[in-house]
Amino acid sequence: MPLTHQHQLMILADILTNHQTDCAGTASECEQVQRLTKLLKQNHNIAPEIQQILEQVEEYSSTGAQQVDLLNHIETHQPDLSQWVETINHYQ
C-alpha cells in the first residue's frame, strides 16, 4: 500500500522535528528527507505554502547527507527546522 501525501508529510515532519529537538541526525535520515521532498514536490495536492518550503528542505537534506559534521549543519538550521515543521503541521 503506497503512502499518501499526508503520510509522507507526517514522516517528513517527524524527521525534521527529531533533528530540531534532538539536534542530531544521520546521513540516511537526510537522504530519506531528500526522497520525500522530491516525491512531495511532484504532488499538486500539497498546499502552496508547503510547496514553497520543499525546495529549502530538499537543499538542507541534500547538503546534510554529505556533511562530515552533521551536528553543526543541524545546529545551523535550527530556526529553519522550527519554521518548516510549523508550516507542515499547520497545513497538514
Relevant terms:
about 0% strand; 5 helices; globular; single chain; about 90 residues
Can you offer a commentary on this structure?
It is a single chain. This protein has a domain at 28-41 and 50-92. The mean pLDDT is 94. Helix 1 (5-22) runs antiparallel to helix 5 (78-91) and helix 3 (48-65) runs antiparallel to helix 5 (78-91). With 92 residues, it is mainly α. It is built from 5 helices and no strands. The longest helix is centred in the first third of the chain and has 18 residues, at 5-22.
Main sheet makeup: none
Overall helicity: over 70%
Distance from N terminus to C terminus (CA atoms, Å) equals 20 Å
- Element string (H = helix, E = strand): HHHHH
Strand content: under 5%
Shape descriptor: globular
| Mean residue pLDDT | 94
* Low-confidence blocks of residues: none
What is the assembly state of the chains in this entry? single chain
Count of individual beta strands: 0
Tally of helical segments = 5
Give me the Rg, rounded. 12 Å
Which structural category do the helix and sheet elements fall into? mainly alpha
Short description:
By secondary structure, the chain is an all-alpha fold. The protein is built from 5 helices and no strands.
